[in-house]
Amino acid sequence: MGPVRVSIIVFCTLSLCAASSWSLEAAGWSFSDLGVLRLNDRGAAVMFLQNCLTELGYLTQPADGIFGLATRQGVRAFQKAVGLAADGIVGRATWQALEEQMTADSSTYVVKAGDTLWAIARQHNVAVSDLARVNALSNPNRITPGQVLRIPRRAAAGGGGAGPVIYLMPWDEVNRLFPREGIAEVVDLESGLRFKVKRLFGTNHADVEPLTAADTEIMKKAVGGSWSWARRPIAVKCNGLYIAASMNGMPHGSSSIENNNFPGHFCIHFYDSRLHAGDRLDPEHQRAVMQALMY
């Protein structure tokens, strides 16, 4: 799977999604459709904002979905950097600037005291060698505070030309588009591997299982050869749409397919999906959903 273009869609009815003549790109949805955000706001949109700011180097604290003082400071720093009024309120202009930064071929990061190239590469989920290459660093161990680095965007394994658009779609809409017993294709964006899944159940997110033993084998290869709870950015292809999502790679609980060599089911999360326990956002899953848009 090659580089993908990114589009944001916040609301879409099932009937429109399913219609073959319907063009989601024509809807023109953008980051700004997530609404105006300010101090003391809470929720999935705030967590998405925090993950964007973290990705761009303007926020260091973990995303918690609460628009606190640190988030406002990060917003102000970003606004100042892009020439906007630094009021700490995320309106249309700020969202548009964030979208431009997040969907560009590369972004920038200002080195801070104590940073290492390895830590910066890990934060942005890129290879140290790629970071050194695009910045023409002959000695990766020599970076200085204040130095501006280009951060290359990730590209899914598999190479090639332009790939499909990946959409950000809220769980309420995905829940209708991908019903129980439905079949979808998962694209693991780090490896480029694809496998099919069947939705078992799940109210707050999708609990799924590999469709066949062959799909289980591909999935296990994608997660590195052993099952893991680690969250991974994925795209879920359903009704022709590629939807930004996150999965863990750990079989657990019950299952319905007896011959797929997968002893249970696993979880797939989408924008604004929740944990079954406590109806809470999972920060790691929401971050991986955001990362899926950047492939």
Structure description:
The structure is a single chain. Strands 5-6-7-10-9-8 form a six-stranded antiparallel barrel. A two-stranded antiparallel ribbon has the order 2-3. The model is unreliable at 1-28 and 158-162 (pLDDT under 50). By secondary structure, the protein is an alpha+beta fold. The N and C termini lie close together (9 Å). The chain has helices at residues 14-18, 44-56, 69-81, 92-103, 117-124, 128-134, 171-177, 213-222, 283-292; strands spanning 6-8, 106-110, 148-152, 166-168, 183-188, 194-201, 206-210, 228-238, 241-249, 266-269. The chain has two domains: 34-152, Orthogonal Bundle (Muramoyl-pentapeptide Carboxypeptidase, domain 1), CATH 1.10.101.10; 166-292, no CATH class. Helices cover 29% and strands 20% of the residues. The relative contact order is 0.16.
Which characteristics define this entry?
295 residues, alpha+beta, Muramoyl-pentapeptide Carboxypeptidase, domain 1, 9 helices, disordered N terminus
Series of H and E elements: EHHHHEHHEEHEEEHEEEH
Low-confidence stretches: 1-28, 158-162
Structural class designation: alpha+beta
Helix content: 25-40%
The gross shape turns out to be globular
Annotation, overall tally of beta strands: 10
* Percent strand: 15-25%
Number of domains: 2
Major sheet, described briefly?
A: 6 strands, antiparallel, barrel
Counting DSSP H or I runs of 4 or more residues, the number of helices is: 9
Q: Strand sequence of the main sheet, in spatial order? A: 5-6-7-10-9-8
Note the gap between the termini.
9 Å
Arithmetic mean of pLDDT: 86
The Rg value, from CA coordinates, equals 19 Å
